[in-house]
């Protein structure tokens, strides 16, 4: 995430009370108090988010930046130190002091900036959760438990998020002696969520990760893990981290925890091929337990993980071909990169791909061709390519229209591009399976140039053309 010069974090908190140079407002939990750092050069939106998390409601950002701190004083904060532009406020911790880490812990302004729609985070390469008190965890049964501590007097508490289409009618949490719980089944990935207490939406104050909600607040972010890095031995090391292609080889970002005779760290990794190495006290080490290794262009030996779905590309015939390759949007259309092997009378190549939608073609002795066994197409830059969805979560179906020459599907998922997706004919239906974004999706069919609602779907809503759009809701767990 690129930040302007005035919001680059350069934070260091000394527990003796000295505020180091910082160019972004932050809220930190020390051992027995909360410490609020405010940089008077912060932007108003940044300051608003920090003050909201600090429990300062209805504050005037402009007045705070001008030196009027009455809203902070009213919320129980005391000005403890000032160093040039940086102010340090403190507030005693009155609950859960036994769960606050001994070292300073950033619990706010870890705001993600993905390219997803508000409330539905975009895919990310990796993720590590950051809690001041763990309020979301995985149970042995495979379900994820969300916990809202306290709120004993609340009449009704709900859990809402990207995993249940931000419902306000479901997601009821169960009251316990220490708070409220809700158990749901999640696949590995990134999720946004909030609690609804007596009709009021709040973020998880114990969760350091957030994403802007598209309004004036933010949603809490949780990663459902799917991978654990483990390094056996190295028991005399003082620090072990893991880095790789997923985090741009940032050696200091993901530390491993020392166990009896090994080190480990769990996180979420996006599907695909991942290169990685361990860093042991500054010394790079390939994973000795992983036999799959590859050298990069600098001569470094990297361990390799392959996560994802297996998509098998096959081309029948072409007995006399000397070389057959496949290229597509999954490898930036590089020819002579992914080769098919001859098995009897078929050319075959199984590839591990990230779930998504892809255009592709075969290259037979230098000649590019579409897949003759696939009647679904994707038009990109005026070029017609074969289309495949890896791990699709919806299949569009239009029954009948036997005499139609072409049937296309378009909608909010492709910015209403009317040429992009051409459906294939199977039996008495036109079909196309796709990987769609989560949440509400609007769409229409285009039959030989004529736009139409989906006759097999009763859900629709009006549009600006008074012709309506069909609606589907895509569940994040599909």
Automatic annotation (TrEMBL):
<dbReference type="InterPro" id="IPR050827">
    <property type="entry name" value="CRP1_MDG1_kinase"/>
</dbReference>
<feature type="domain" description="AMP-activated protein kinase glycogen-binding">
    <location>
        <begin position="320"/>
        <end position="393"/>
    </location>
</feature>
<feature type="domain" description="AMP-activated protein kinase glycogen-binding">
    <location>
        <begin position="153"/>
        <end position="215"/>
    </location>
</feature>
<feature type="domain" description="AMP-activated protein kinase glycogen-binding">
    <location>
        <begin position="402"/>
        <end position="472"/>
    </location>
</feature>
<dbReference type="Pfam" id="PF16561">
    <property type="entry name" value="AMPK1_CBM"/>
</dbReference>
<dbReference type="InterPro" id="IPR013783">
    <property type="entry name" value="Ig-like_fold"/>
</dbReference>
<comment type="similarity">
    <text>Belongs to the 5'-AMP-activated protein kinase beta subunit family.</text>
</comment>
<feature type="signal peptide">
    <location>
        <begin position="1"/>
        <end position="22"/>
    </location>
</feature>
<dbReference type="InterPro" id="IPR014756">
    <property type="entry name" value="Ig_E-set"/>
</dbReference>
<dbReference type="InterPro" id="IPR032640">
    <property type="entry name" value="AMPK1_CBM"/>
</dbReference>
<feature type="domain" description="AMP-activated protein kinase glycogen-binding">
    <location>
        <begin position="234"/>
        <end position="308"/>
    </location>
</feature>
<protein>
    <recommendedName>
        <fullName>AMP-activated protein kinase glycogen-binding domain-containing protein</fullName>
    </recommendedName>
</protein>
<keyword id="KW-0732">Signal</keyword>
């Amino acid at each position: 995430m690129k930040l302007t010069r005035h919001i680059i974090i350069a934070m260091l908190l000394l527990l003796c009370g000295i505020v180091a140079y910082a160019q972004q407002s932050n809220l930190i939990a020390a051992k027995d108090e909360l410490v609020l750092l405010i940089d008077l050069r912060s932007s108003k939106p940044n300051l608003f988010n920090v003050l909201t998390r600090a429990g300062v409601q209805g504050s005037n950002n402009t007045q705070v930046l001008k030196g009027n701190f009455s809203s902070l004083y009213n919320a129980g904060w005391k000005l403890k130190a000032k160093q040039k532009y940086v102010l340090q406020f403190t507030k005693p911790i009155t609950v859960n002091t036994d769960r606050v880490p001994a070292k300073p812990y950033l619990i706010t302004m870890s705001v993600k900036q993905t390219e997803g729609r508000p409330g539905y985070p975009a895919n990310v390469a990796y993720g590590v959760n950051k809690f001041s008190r763990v309020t979301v965890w995985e149970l042995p049964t495979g379900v994820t438990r969300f916990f809202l501590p306290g709120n004993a007097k609340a009449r009704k508490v709900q859990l809402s998020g990207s995993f249940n289409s931000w419902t306000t009618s479901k997601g009821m949490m169960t009251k316990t002696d220490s708070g409220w719980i809700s158990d749901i089944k999640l696949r590995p990935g990134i999720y946004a969520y909030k609690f609804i207490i007596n009709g009021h939406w709040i973020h998880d104050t114990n969760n350091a990760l957030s994403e802007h909600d598209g309004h004036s607040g933010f949603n809490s972010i949780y990663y459902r893990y799917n991978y654990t890095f483990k390094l056996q031995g190295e028991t005399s090391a003082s620090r072990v981290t893991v880095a790789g292609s997923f985090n741009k080889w940032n050696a200091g970002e993901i530390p491993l925890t020392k166990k009896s005779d090994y080190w480990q760290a769990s996180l979420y990794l996006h599907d695909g091929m991942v290169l990685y190495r361990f860093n042991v006290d500054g010394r790079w080490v390939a994973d000795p337990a992983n036999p799959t290794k590859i050298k990069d262009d600098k001569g470094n030996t990297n361990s390799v993980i392959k996560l994802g779905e297996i998509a098998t590309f096959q081309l029948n015939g072409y007995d006399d071909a000397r070389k057959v390759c496949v290229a597509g949007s999954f490898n930036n259309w590089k020819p002579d990169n992914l080769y098919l092997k001859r098995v009897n009378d078929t050319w075959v190549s199984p590839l591990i791909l990230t779930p998504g939608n892809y255009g592709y073609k075969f290259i037979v002795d230098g000649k590019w061709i579409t897949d003759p066994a696939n009647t679904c197409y994707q038009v990109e830059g005026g070029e017609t390519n074969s289309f495949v969805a890896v791990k699709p979560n919806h299949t569009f179906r239009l029954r009948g229209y036997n005499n139609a020459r072409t049937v296309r599907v378009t909608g909010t998922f492709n910015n209403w591009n009317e040429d992009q997706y051409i459906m294939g004919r199977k039996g008495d239906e036109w079909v196309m399976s796709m990987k769609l974004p989560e949440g509400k999706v609007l769409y229409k069919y285009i039959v030989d140039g004529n736009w139409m609602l989906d006759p097999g779907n009763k859900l629709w809503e009006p549009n600006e053309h008074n012709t309506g759009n069909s609606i589907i809701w895509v569940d994040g767990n599909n």
